[in-house]
Structures are given as structure tokens and as C-alpha cells.
Amino acid sequence: MKNVICDLHVHSGLKGFGAHGHEEFNKRSIWDKFPERADVMKRLNFFLKAAIKDVAKESQANLDACAETKLMVPFLAIYPIERQMFEMDPQRPYKNLFNLFLQGKQPVFLGSAVSGFPPEKVADILANFEKGNDDGVDYFKNYLEERNYLMDQTMVGSKHNDFSFKIATNYKNFQALLASKTTITGILTVEGVHSFGHYLNNSTFKKTFDQLDTIERTVLEQSFIENITRVKKERKGELAPFFVTFCHHFNNLLAGHARSFSGKSDFLSGFAWPNKPGMRHLLNQETNLKKGFSTLGKQVMELMLDRSKGKRILIDTKHMSLASRWEYYQYIKHKREVEGDNIPIVHSHGAISGWKTLGDAAKHEEDEKIDKNQFFSRWQINLTDEDILETYDSAGIIGLLLHEGRMPGESFKKEANKLKKKIKNAKRNQAKRDFYSVQLKDLYIKLLWSNIFHIVKTVQEERGEDGWGLITFGSDFDGLIDPFDSYAEATGFKDLREDMIQYLKSGKEVLISENGTEKTLPGEEVWSLMAGKTPEERMQQIMFSNADRFLSRYFTDDYLNNLLTLNDAHSTMNS
Questions:
Q1: Structurally, how many domains does the chain consist of?
Q2: Please, what is the angle between helix 119-126 and helix 106-115, to 10°?
């Protein structure tokens, strides 16, 4: 379908749901743009304002914005926000410094400014961390509330009132809805399998599954089994999410997560320390970081995939640690090669690291040195060549995110920051502003094409096959990210398509990585890897066709309740 856009990972409903039920927002829905909470920002001290200056604080993917840009297929990530996002647990060596600036109601204002939630809602969540209070959380209640909220958002748009919104239940239903050309057709997904668990105490999050007492363990285990089974069978699985991101930012007691918060920031630009204070030191990710699956995690993973116990729920590997990813790959490889059951790897919103293998990535500590003088970010959360090949072998899919905080390395960021300063300083000279703005756009486009061609080249060299069918976009808009300045919200997809086409046609530089070291991809090899397709045709694949084919194979009753072989899946991957 020409010019229609899919986004494999977006949080269009998060800000609307967060504000739902509060009087000041009673006339707003997920169609409406939520502005930055200026009232709350004014009450933050200078230190915390600087800490979040690059995080998008107004809505980026409200449905009116989707309608404007023809983002007609948002994969809507339901996200019961993890308690630890609001806990503010400062880490050494900046513990005292952070505690100084987090006095009084500053944590409430910080949480509200970043999430867009009303301060009263943030204050209610923070009450669970008050001294002596160890009340846990039943995330499944939060999950059902957000899911039901999304299901109820069936009104027409406020700005684009010729558009409507519905949730698709399978591929046949998806096709029928999309055929109207004015129905934004959502696919339900979930970010974080914690969404199905009842964690009895807040202190539970500081433990591993093996460290739980009998009551904590029993409550947690039973909640996951009962809630996942319910979702898989409810209305014959019609409301089950298509896939679930197994891990997220913090310990879920199921599988180890990757580090996602950076140590570098602009908190103190002149601070004489090799690793400036940042979100890594404000939010505690340490418990279970980089570990593998727990016994309960393996049980939950198998239950989600088990078609004898209701509709299969696919697993998204984004945010998994290297160890967790390796264990998961071994499991699905066995299912595919021994049992003939193909389970596609989903990586919904990622970027390449350039490392050859998971083992290569594990050798390098994520400190201030790892991305120094690098175009690509080499953090463990990003995809190695091994991840790419495992995804290809499973006939899976990779969504490229539009996140300046996580996709590029330091050399990219320095160049981007120089251009941003030039744009700002040229505010009275429109010609200069336009000139530098085009350069900044080119830099973002270079980053995206470089990620894409690295994936394609890896598959071509290692499998002798066409890897273009793997790739789509998973923006993570409204996911509390630092978006690309030139494409900071969903409406930017319109320009992004054309800008990427023109960049490739102009013959501008594209990079790849050779085990963590960037190099220029020769122009003749760029066109060789295009395999006879035009830039327009490849962008059509990336923007829509690849995700559509993925849905046609896996978002079906035949697959989710029965069986699809690997040959069936690969046969249409590049058709």
C-alpha cells in the first residue's frame, strides 16, 4: 500500500492514558497533542532541568499526528510504567549530589515533566517509596486499565475528523480495516513482561527470583501463570498482544536486562570527571543487570509461546541482556531445527552496535570510553552481527528506532551538537539556518542508511541472501526518548521518506562497522547491495511492506494457534 507507514514500536496512548481521569485533561484523548508541562518545568531546579533537556516532553505520536503523516499502522506498546522509573535511587559516585537536588517535591515534578502525567498521579506512585512503606504493585491491573483505555478510543479524530481508529485482532481484520484508507489500525503489543506480574513488595525488585521468600515467590509465580493464560484465552485470544518486550529498564526477576541509561549528560558541563553524572546515576538498573533467565523466566517465556495453552504471544528481544538473548536464541533454534516450529525473533526498536558476536560485545565495559570517537553506539543493548543473523535465520524483523540517545556514538553526537549550535546562533539569518538544518538532516539520514546497509551487508556476506526484508522502523515515539531533532515526532515521517531517497540518489556517504570500527561503504557496493531496486522501492519496503509481510505470516490464526514452517516464512520474506 503506497505511502502508508508502519511503526513497529510506538506509545501513542501513553500520555493520554496517564492523564485519563484528571479534570484538567477530561476533553483530551489519544488523538490530541499533549504539550510540555510548562507549569511543572518551572518548578524544577536548574540541575534537573538540564538533566532532561533532550527528553521529548510533549506528545510525538498522538493519532492526529499519525493521520497527518499516514502512519496508519502503529504497533501500540502498552507500558505499565515501572515503579523504579519514579523511585530516584541515586548511585555512586554522585549519590550525595543527586540527593541534594532531589529534596522536597522535586521528584514529583521531575516524574511529571518527563512522563506528562499529572503531578498528583506521580505523587501517588511515589507514596509507595515513603519510609517504612513496602507496598508492591500488581502491574496486571495497570495493564488491563491501559489496554481497555486503548480499546475504548474509537472516536474519530479531533483535527482529522475524517479518520477513525480501531485495533486489529488478526491479519484478515487488519486488511479489512486498512482498506478503508482512513482507519488508523493499531496492533496491540506490550513493553515489559512485568505487565503480567504481581510483585508483593517494593523490596522484591532488589532481589533475584532465587532470593524471594516462599510467599513472594508463590504470589509472583501464580500471577504470571494466571494472567498470561487469561490473556491468551480471553475472547479466544483476540485481545492478546501480538508480541511482548520481555525485559525493560529494570529487574523483573525473569531475565537479565541490558543497560539503557547513559552516564554522560550535560548536568555539569565543566565537571572534571571522566564520566559525567547522568540518568545512569539517578536510576538504579543494577539488580539482575546483564544476567540470564531465571527458572520463572523460562517458565513464563515457554508459556507465552505455547500454543497448546492459548494463542501464542511472540517475544521481543529488545532490552534483553546479551546472556538472555543468547539463551533465547538457543531455545528457538531448538524449536525450529528439532521440532519444526519456527518462532520469529522480534527486535522492535533497536540499532546496530557493529560488534561481530555477543561474546565480542560482552568484552567491553559500557563506560565513557566505549563510544569515544565512534559513529555507532557500541552498547550491549544494540544489535551485534550475531543478533542480526539469528533474526534473519528465524524470518524475524528489526525495527530501527529514532533515538539520538541510544543509536549513535560520540563522534556523531559531537558533530550533531555543533550543527545544533550553529542553527541556534543563526536565528536571525534564515539562509544560514536552512543550510545548517539540511546538514543536520543529512547526518541523521546517514546514520539510518548506515544501520540499514550494515544489516543488509551482514546477511549478504554471511548467508548469501537478501536481508532487506528484515528492516522496518520502530520509532519509540512517546517512549520518553531523545528523538532526532529533524524528525522529532510522527509527522516527520513524511519528510524522512523523501530525504532518505534523495540522500541515496545523491551518492552521499554510507558507513558500516567491522567488529566495532566504522568504515565507508564504497558507492559501487551500496548500489550492488540494492540488488536492482530503486531507493523508492527500498523505502516502500522499510516503511510498510516488510511489516505487512511479517503480519501476513505471523498475525494469523493459522500461525498463532497452529503451525508455520521456516520454509513457509522465508519463502515470502523478500517477495
A1: 1
A2: 120
